[in-house]
Amino acid sequence: GDSVTQMEGPVTLSEEAFLTINCTYTATGYPSLFWYVQYPGEGLQLLLKATKADDKGSNKGFEATYRKETTSFHLEKGSVQVSDSAVYFCALSLNTGGFKTIFGAGTRLFVKA
Amino acid sequence: SAVISQKPSRDICQRGTSLTIQCQVDSQVTMMFWYRQQPGQSLTLIATANQGSEATYESGFVIDKFPISRPNLTFSTLTVSNMSPEDSSIYLCSSRGTGGDEQYFGPGTRLTVT
């Protein structure tokens, strides 16, 4: 079945370090791919998305490229800040089967000053 | 985008009672979703609620335990019935963007059952 696998956390980085959170997916169709972020005590927010192969989603310095050949959508940021500390969820959505979104397990990021 | 509010934001309830969670969207949306999130865990879809039809429940969730109403295109409720401590969780309401496939989430309702 359709699924999303992302790297386990927590990930702890110093401020201004480079961030990569790996995400791979399995899907029978052609999904849209997303990264959502959840700050402490809040709901999820859409961070970025990509709807087709080779698309790059970007927002707030974060980027992810839809790689169909490797079924991946890795999240990157060149220089993290303390305010980026949150849980990051990779997700996919197929416009079939009830239009459901499938979420990864989430990766918690801690950024130290 | 859509702005979603939920009430209550948190509650502490006794075993055997029921709690109804309200979800309000600031625009008309076709699809609304209810999720459960255990602490430190990912989201588990409870059901999909479309206006004018019965909610569609995921495996492991039943209408008697989690009745859902969807009276119009901006509002939904989820009731957690006959609660037990295992129902302690965060419950999230979500809607799907019109014309897009991203989802928008409410801030969640933190439920503790004692």
Low-confidence stretches of chain B: none
Order of helices and strands of chain A: EEEEEEEEEEEE
Largest interface pair: A-B, 23 and 22 residues
Q: What's the N-to-C terminus distance of chain B?
A: 37 Å
Q: Provide the succession of SSEs of chain B.
A: EEEEEEEEEEE
Strand count, sense and closure of the main sheet of chain B? 7 strands, mixed
Number of helices of chain B: 0
Q: Provide the helix percentage of chain A.
A: under 10%
The secondary structure category of chain B is mainly beta
Q: Describe the oligomeric state of these chains in a short phrase.
A: heterodimer
Question: Mean pLDDT score of chain A, rounded?
Answer: 93
Overall body shape of chain A: globular
What integer is the average pLDDT of chain B?
A: 93
Strand content of chain A: over 45%
Low-confidence stretches of chain A: none
Q: Indicate the structural class of chain A.
A: mainly beta
Compute the CA-based radius of gyration of chain B. 13 Å
How many DSSP-defined strands of chain B?
11
By DSSP (H or I, 4+ residues per run), the number of helices of chain A equals: 0
End-to-end separation of chain A in angstroms reads 41 Å
Summarize the entry for a quick read.
The complex is a heterodimer of chains A (113) and B (114). Helix content of chain A is 0%, strand content 50%.
Mind explaining what this structure looks like?
The complex is a heterodimer of chains A (113) and B (114). By secondary structure, chain A is mainly β. Chain A contains no helices and twelve strands. In chain A, strand 7 and strand 8 (62-65) form a beta hairpin. Chain A starts with a strand and ends with a strand. Chain B is mostly beta strands and 114 residues long. Helices cover 0% and strands 52% of the residues of chain B. In chain B, the strands form two sheets. In chain B, strands 2, 4, 5, 6, 9, 10 and 11 form a seven-stranded mixed beta sheet that branches. In chain B, strands 1-3-8-7 form a four-stranded antiparallel beta sheet, with no helix packed on it. In chain B, strand 9 (89-96) and strand 10 (103-105) form a beta hairpin.
